[in-house]
Write a structure and sequence with these properties.
The chain is of the alpha+beta class. It is built from 6 helices and 11 strands.
């Protein structure tokens, strides 16, 4: 099936947005035009009328004569004011909107990367990873596996809590194995799991033609309507950036690297195994092994997308 028809179940939006801003426009533009018309008529009418009358009387007496002046005056004042104004205009408001959406331009980005030849393919024609280096972008198809250290620890915590750690401590004397109790082991497993779950990331493993690929997954990028392990044992198409290469079986990728003390926590987890074997031998079944590293040939890949 053509890669363009694959449905993404995981998209690393940060990485895709960074690349798209370099290789393609990185956004979609939409223009909204809003037309506004205004037809306004304004009028005003004013009529002023004013009347005034006055009477004046003046009498002047002297040595020889007597003078009297009488005056009457009246006037009327009228004023009319008329005003009419018409206004008509059209205005267009233009809004330019840029929409950034990962799903929309994922195929454009992939096609651009293909055109530039920056993607290396791992397939039947080229199954070797000898020409793969850190920083390369790779495309591969492989089977999704679920037996990761995080899942194993989750299941052990769940099973121990259901058995009841206090009940197991009272039922079995494990001093011949070591100083730990099942209550202590369960609490230590919870501490390790907190370290592995920091940043809302977890590891999955993809097997491609005998090459194990470790993919750190950010849970915020998975499809809102899917759970990544619903597709366990299914073939997935991966596009991602290589962060580490283990070419030979003497090299490995640590599954506890996120703790910053992978050697210590590997020893700690291995110290739990005799206690779990003891439970299995006494009818309390529980996973008895922890996969703490993936031997080469192996790749650690920061996935841009996981498609089916």
């Amino acid at each position: 099936m053509p890669a363009e028809l694959f449905t993404p179940i995981y998209l690393n939006q940060d990485e895709i947005q960074n690349l798209s801003s370099i290789l393609i426009d990185g956004y979609f533009e939409s223009i909204t035009i809003k037309q506004i018309s205004d037809n306004t008529v304004t009028g005003r009418y004013q009529h002023n009328n004013k009347s005034q009358c006055s009477n004046d009387y003046k009498n002047t007496k002297g040595d020889k004569d007597d003078n009297t002046v009488i005056g009457n005056s009246c006037y009327n004042y009228g004023d009319i004011f008329r005003y009419l104004e018409g206004r008509n205009f059209d205005r267009n408001d233009v809004t330019l909107k840029r929409v950034y959406a990962s799903f929309s331009y994922y195929n454009n980005l992939r096609n651009k990367m293909n055109t530039l030849g920056v993607i290396k393919y791992i397939n039947n024609s080229s199954p070797s990873i000898n020409n793969i280096y850190s920083g390369d972008y790779v495309d591969l198809t492989g089977c999704l596996e679920v037996n990761t250290i995080s899942n194993c620890i989750d299941n052990c915590i769940f099973i121990l809590n259901n058995y009841g750690t206090s009940h197991l401590d009272n039922l079995f004397d494990t001093k011949h194995i070591g100083p730990l109790t099942y209550t202590m082991i369960c609490e230590l497993l919870k501490t390790i799991q907190k370290e592995l779950n920091k940043g809302a990331t977890f590891d999955i493993i993809i097997n491609c033609l005998g090459v194990n690929c470790v993919l750190p997954i950010n849970s915020t990028y998975t499809s809102k309507h899917s759970y990544i392990y619903d597709d366990a044992s299914c073939d997935c198409c991966i596009l991602g950036k290589v962060s580490k290469v283990a070419y030979t079986p003497s090299e490995s990728i640590g599954m506890l690297r996120k703790t910053g003390l992978d050697s210590y926590y590997t020893k700690l987890l291995n110290s739990f195994i005799p206690y779990f074997h003891f439970l299995n031998n006494n009818g309390f079944l529980i996973p008895g092994e922890f996969i703490t590293s993936i031997n080469g040939p192996a790749l650690e890949i920061i996935p841009l997308s996981i498609c089916m």
